[in-house]
Amino acid sequence: MAWGSAEEQKLEHEAGNPNAKDWHDEATKIIKETMTEYWEQMKPLTTSKPPANSPNKHSKCPLKSDFNCLLWECLLQATVQTDNGGWKPELQRYLTDIPKDISKEMDIVAWWAACSDDYPTLSHIAMDICAILATSVPCGQLFSTGAEIATNHHSCLGANRFEQLQILKHAW
């Protein structure tokens, strides 16, 4: 029996838990909604992409920093190159081609980076989520690390570069 499946939900209901959920179904709904959202954000960009030498090439990018716009353009390029009918075939390929060597100890960020050509939309979603720190450290202590980067020497870098340093410090 798979974890979070309909069978497990039924057993939980029988054991007296009225709030049991089919977590597999919940996760599938969330993934479909998220992929639809990412795909819809990208669709207007694929129909009218400015030339690469355009001085205002980030004008259609819905993100604020240059770093995020660069990531957005890479995702857009990968999506245009592998456009095969939208996000549904990509999700179906992922759900049917899940590798058997997945374990708790594997590096999920490295796996998604390696599979970004096969699953461009899903890998972008995964990288957005994997960049969020999971920690039991109090928030105040977590955000105080900004002071380690925001030294007098680094203060002239500007907001975009500071954001990139913060992300790189924790994501890579």
UniProtKB/TrEMBL annotation:
Pfam families recorded: Dimer_Tnp_hAT (PF05699)
Ranges where the HAT C-terminal dimerisation domain occurs: 90-169
Superkingdom as given in the UniProt entry: Eukaryota
UniProt-recorded Gene Ontology molecular function terms: protein dimerization activity
Annotated stretches, region: Disordered: 1-21
SUPFAM superfamilies linked to this entry: Ribonuclease H-like (SSF53098)
Transmembrane segments: none
Stretches with biased composition (Basic and acidic residues): 7-21
Identification of the protein by name: HAT C-terminal dimerisation domain-containing protein
Protein's organism: Scleroderma citrinum Foug A
